[in-house]
């Protein structure tokens, strides 16, 4: 995880995750269903303004040898 503070109460983050990771739940906790969330860890309200996939690390086609 990399984070960079922006102006006011905003930041930009880069996360390296595995397939199936629920990014939105990690950030805001999905109405309390996911603990801890980033909002919990920072003791603040957290939400997502934009979500982009920057890279996919996948060898394709798979080597079936």
UniProtKB/TrEMBL annotation:
Keywords: Isomerase, tRNA processing. InterPro entries: PsdUridine_synth_cat_dom_sf, Pus10-like, Pus10-like_C. Its EC number is 5.4.99.25. It is an enzyme of class 5 (isomerase). GO terms for molecular function: RNA binding; tRNA pseudouridine(55) synthase activity. Pfam families: Pus10_C. Residues 1-57 form the Pus10-like C-terminal domain. GO terms for biological process: tRNA pseudouridine synthesis. Belongs to the pseudouridine synthase Pus10 family. This is tRNA pseudouridine(55) synthase.
